[in-house]
Specification:
The strands form five sheets. An eight-stranded mixed sheet has the order 6-10-11-20-19-18-15-14, sandwiched between helices. Strands 1-2-3-5-4 form a five-stranded mixed β-barrel. A three-stranded antiparallel sheet has the order 7-9-8, with no helix packed on it. The protein has 17 helices and 20 strands. Helices cover 36% and strands 25% of the residues. The relative contact order is 0.09. By secondary structure, it is an alpha+beta fold. It has two domains: 135 residues, Nucleic acid-binding proteins (OB fold (Dihydrolipoamide Acetyltransferase, E2P), Beta Barrel); 257 residues, Bira Bifunctional Protein, Domain 2 (BirA Bifunctional Protein, domain 2, 2-Layer Sandwich), CATH 3.30.930.10.
Length: 502
């Protein structure tokens, strides 16, 4: 049976359009295996240093033995001696390999190594006549054979689609890509450090939910076979976290993946990382304070300063963020004062006059938001808290006591993009039920992004939730801002891609 499987595999290989170089690499591997030198049978290599440690610590390491390992990125054969560059996780380092030092047989084997092979080198640290820190090899070991040919640096990596599909290859050839994802990890670590320092407790809540809630978005649907029920991949973290506030946790947060069955663009990926926090006994003003401090602190600790350049704009997260109402911003950019608009009919007439598309179900608050999105959003370059959203588009938010048509909600905009969304959380179970019922009506009218009624959450509110502020931050967009990434795909290791056979 094993022999039959082997023949099938061989048949599949011969059907592939393998290049001549790939076939040569496979022949080299077969020869090594025939000689009892199969590199894939090596189980470990004891590294002592990475490339940057040797370069930075040259004065202490000169003349001392080290062991390095990584990918062979270049090789210059010069008769009885050669130079090669090895790439590890922290950078590259040169090695000098001589036949007199490693022996005729091993040197002959080294000359057959291919670019992309994983190798280990043991030797001592020195500097060449040109002053380059290097490792003088005493032993060279092939640790893994590369059967694919790395793309040419300046010609094979212009295909963005290929880079996203084969991120492993992108990471090998483009050091700046690795730097982006190292910075992403540091950003998330700094967010955790900041929140932990404020007394927040990190928790985990279910990804699979029986009712998707906490946002207006179309969910992904799956089916649980044992329970024989449909379930949803979460679209937000909000409702479980607010249940914990009811239960007595006064400060909680979660950083996790959420899923929204929506379009893909430079700003949107169906699977993305969201941070949400909830703090009892504060409101959206407290959330503005913590958001501004967090953005400033993370930038300072990751970038070494609060000044950021993005898309040709100079931003300074160290400066106070502007705070403006949605109504005042729409008036500033359109001349229309929605506080003076008396009803939905008048709002729709203004929309027609300004060529703002709306749906028949939309009411005055919806149309105010449409005006904001059409005329204002793109102009908000410097960090701006847009506050006091209409109640119709904020189903989980506490109303403003002095003006119940609006809510204590803000979104943070920078360079025309939303980076955070926060509320004074609605804790009135009777008002919340009415908001859910309104959302359910929208859902029945065809809005599949509207909220469903979550009876258990309403029960939780009936037990009593203290006044609470809540905040959500899109981690991917925040990373884009601090790394000057153009597309969200540039900061997600494995973005959602359409299969090639489709």
């Amino acid at each position: 049976m094993a022999e039959q499987n082997e023949n099938v595999q061989e048949k599949e290989l011969t059907q592939q359009e393998l290049s001549e170089q790939i076939l040569i690499r496979r022949d080299k591997l077969a020869q090594l295996q025939a000689e009892g030198k199969n590199p894939f049978e090596i189980v470990k290599f004891d590294m002592t240093h990475h490339s940057d440690e040797i370069k930075d610590g040259f004065d202490a390491l000169e003349g001392k033995d080290v062991a390095i390992a990584g990918r062979l990125m270049s090789k210059r054969i010069m008769g009885k001696a050669s130079f090669c560059n090895l790439q590890d996780r922290n950078g590259t380092i040169q090695s000098y390999v001589s036949r007199n030092d490693i022996g005729d047989e091993d040197y002959a084997a080294f000359k057959k190594f291919d670019i992309g092979d994983i190798i280990g080198i043991k030797g001592f640290v020195f500097r060449t006549k040109t002053g380059e820190t290097s490792v003088h090899a005493k032993e060279v070991t092939l640790l893994s054979k590369s059967l694919q040919v790395l793309p040419e640096k300046f010609h094979g990596l212009k295909d963005q689609e290929l880079r996203y599909r084969q991120r492993y290859m992108d990471l090998i050839v483009n050091p700046e890509v690795r730097d982006t994802f190292i910075k992403r990890s540091k950003i998330i670590s700094e967010i955790r450090r900041f929140l932990d320092g404020k007394g927040f407790l990190e928790v985990e809540t279910p990804v699979l939910q029986t009712i998707p809630g906490g946002a207006s978005a179309r969910p992904f649907i799956t089916h649980h076979n044992t329970l024989d029920i449909d379930m949803y991949c979460r679209i937000a973290l909000e409702l479980p976290l607010k249940r914990l506030i009811v239960g007595g946790f006064e400060r909680v947060y979660e950083i996790g993946r959420v899923f929204r069955n929506e379009g893909i663009s430079v700003r949107h990926n169906p699977e993305f990382t969201l941070m949400e926090l909830y703090q009892a006994y504060t409101d959206y003003n407290g959330m503005m304070d913590i958001t501004e401090e967090m953005f400033r602190t993370v930038a300072q600790n990751v970038l070494g300063g609060t000044k950021v350049q993005y898309g040709g704009h100079d931003l300074d997260l160290g400066q106070p963020f502007a705070r403006k109402t949605m109504v005042s911003l729409v008036k500033e950019y359109t001349g229309i004062d929605f506080d003076a608009v008396e009803n939905t009919e008048e709002a729709k007439a203004l929309a027609k006059e300004r060529h703002v598309e709306f749906e028949e179900r939309h009411v005055k608050g919806d149309i105010l938001l449409l005006f904001f999105e059409e005329f204002v959003e793109k102009n908000l370059v410097q960090p701006t808290f847009v506050i006091d959203y209409p109640v119709e588009v904020s189903p989980l938010t506490k109303r403003k006591p002095e003006n119940p048509d609006y809510t204590e909600r803000f979104e943070l905009f920078i360079i025309g993009r939303e980076y955070a969304n926060a509320y004074s959380e609605l804790n009135d179970p009777i008002d919340q039920r009415g908001r859910f019922e309104y959302q359910e009506m929208l859902r029945e009218a065809g809005d599949d992004e509207a909220n469903m009624i979550d009876e258990d959450f309403l029960t939780a509110l009936e037990y009593g939730m203290p006044p609470t502020g809540g905040l959500g931050v899109g981690i991917d967009r925040f990373v884009m801002l601090l790394t000057e990434a153009v597309s969200i795909r540039d900061v997600i290791l494995f973005p959602t891609m359409k299969p090639l056979d489709k």
